[in-house]
Amino acid sequence: MRRKTLRKTIVVLLGIVILLQIGLLITYSQTKNTLKENTPEEVARIATPSVVSITADGKAGSGVIVKENGFILTNAHLIKNATKLHAIFSDNRIRKAKVVGIDEKVDLAVIKVNDTNLPTIKFGDSEKLKIGEEVIAIGHPYGYDFTVTSGIISAKHRDQGPTDYRDFIQTDASINPGNSGGPLLNLNAELVGINTFIVSDLIGGELGFSIPSNLAKKVMNELIESGRIVRGYMGISGQNQFVLDSGGEGHIAKGALVALVLKDGPADKAGIQLGDLITEINGIKIESINHLRNIIAWVKPGQEAKIKLIRNETEIETTLTTIENPY
Question: Model pTM?
């Protein structure tokens, strides 16, 4: 009897071991597929058909096809005020284009050509990018069509640049005049940024900056839907808070320090005061004044924003209703 029980126990244990091994193999296979990446050569082959060269009254740049029925995402500074606008495809077709919408505050625009069944770019999640991750840029620098360069993600959330709203990806992939509006791609051939501007000098070399794909997708969808971007506004001016001792040492505090409150504006009506340190909006921890502006912009006019702030070392919660940004 004991032998039979022992045999059953052994059989059950062996079954469990086999099932565990099968489970591990399946998990490994799924993980391997999830982590599968392409070579730069494969990325270029996959993505190039969805990249276009754009000419706008003699200016030249790049764009990416985002809808198979002819919508193309590019930079606002490239096509603003253009009277003659054309898109040139990788198979050398040339199509007239018209402007759908422009958002100069982040330097993005959507144009459209009359065509169908076009190859489209696949959007990636720019928040998942890692510093040091390899990326590919495709564009038309100095008129050299469909040039491919590679590099890495040098930094994220850069808040310096030529636009009103700033949240740039920094890369050392070569970006030059003519690359504007072209894609920055990860090794899954996904769009993670729209190449926008460079900073360069003869000694320090060149730094490239791209608009994150997550932001670009929001702007693109709203431009296609309504032709313009409507941003939220809370009616304050602010700055970063420097916490320093008498010797000038210390740190920059997380949050946004309120430096001015617009009379009868949303913040004023919500009881926000000069000197308050705003630390959270709708559950999002605020890193800086630039971060605050970027977050509140997407709280649409008429929507509520739950605010956490610190006043005289006491945490206070309040709620404000945004209005449309008048600027």
Answer: 0.85
Q: What is the pLDDT of residues 14-63, one digit of tens each?
A: 556 565 565 555 554 454 444 468 999 999 999 999 999 999 998 999 99
Residues 96-137: tens digit of each pLDDT = 999 999 999 999 999 999 999 999 999 999 999 999 999 999
Catalytic pick among 50, 53, 62, 77? 77
Q: Is 107 a catalytic residue?
A: yes
Is 77 a catalytic site residue? yes
Q: At residue 39, what are phi and psi to the nearest 5 degrees?
A: -80, 160
In DSSP terms, which residues pair with 206 in a beta bridge? 200
DSSP 299: S
Residue of 50, 53, 62, 107 marked active site: 107
What's the angle, vertex CA 9, arms to CA 7 and CA 15, rounded to 5? 105
> Cβ–Cβ contacts within 10 Å for residue 55, how many?
20
Domains and CATH numbers, the chain: 50-113 (2.40.10.10), 122-226 (2.40.10.10), 232-324 (2.30.42.10)
Considering the candidates 180, 210, 213, 288, report the single residue annotated as catalytic. Answer: 180
Element (H, E) at 58: none
CA-to-CA separations, 16 to 10, 30, 70, 277, in angstroms, rounded: 10, 21, 55, 56
